[in-house]
Amino acid sequence: MLLPIRLDTSIAPDGRVMNFGMAAMGQPSVEAPGLPQEPRIAPAIERKRRARAIHKGKRPYEMVWGPPVKYVEIPSGEAGTVETLKIMKDLVLGSWGHRNPEVAMLAQQIVSDLPSKDYKAEAQALFDFMREHVRYRLDPAGLEYVSTPWHTLLVSGNEDCDGHAVAIAALAMSLGHRAAFRTVKGDPNRPEQWSHVYGVIGITQNGQTEWLTADSTQKEAFLGWDPPEAKLFGMKTWVITPGLEEIEWDS
Question: Does 239 map to a domain?
Answer without folding.
Answer: yes
